[in-house]
């Protein structure tokens, strides 16, 4: 094997390692999100504490991915597709780190209202919203692994459904607070949790846009608005 072949091989391995680290971080973030909502809906304080503590591992992976990507850029001076691979890893790890933070915030809210009863209606609403957001997160991570632009576009387009359900849940919680002032404290915490879940959907959408850019070199939102993607 020539020295040039060795360089190319090691370079490819560095890019694959970045992708593996994103997959690992994504798996942890999915788990954190799922467990934070479970802790909220079941008043499981042990699980909530576990989520809060687990955020440190996500932050560590985020730092490692950024440092690795920056090192690749400094050493290899990548261009075109390779540069997009590296920049995309940084972008996606940033979004995943924020999802981890939002999950930790949900877990903290779960600890704050551990002794308060959540009505069955609101419980179902939060569970439905979180199920959709978790599906978005799972789908977009699958899209990244497969470099699947169709799946990324599906995630991007489905964000409107999460937004609509969030607005409906927001109104429902306001009604509960107006009907009985004793609900204000609990519903306020739930409103923040619902907003965090809605924001997790937004971060999944951001990742979908990054995947589309990674594969095509073009911005998804601009092409979608122009109607180009509907004819592709």
Radius of gyration: 20 Å
The CATH H-level superfamily is: Phosphate transport system protein phou homolog 2, domain 2
Query: Could you say what the CATH topology is called?
Result: Methane Monooxygenase Hydroxylase, Chain G, domain 1
User: What helical percentage do the residues reach?
Assistant: over 70%
Mean pLDDT: 90
Any idea what the shape is? elongated
Order of helices and strands: HHHHHHH
Describe the sheet with the most strands.
Answer: none
Describe, in plain words, how this protein is organized in 3D.
With 232 residues, the chain is an all-alpha fold. The chain has one domain (3-231): Phosphate transport system protein phou homolog 2, domain 2 (Methane Monooxygenase Hydroxylase, Chain G, domain 1, Up-down Bundle), CATH 1.20.58. The protein has helices at 3-42, 45-76, 80-112, 120-146, 149-179, 184-216, 220-226. The protein is elongated and about 65 Å long.
Could you list some keywords that capture this structure?
7 helices, Methane Monooxygenase Hydroxylase, Chain G, domain 1, mainly alpha, single chain, 232 residues
Summarize the model shown.
The chain has 232 residues and is an all-alpha fold.
Topology:
Elements: H1 3-42, H2 45-76, H3 80-112, H4 120-146, H5 149-179, H6 184-216, H7 220-226
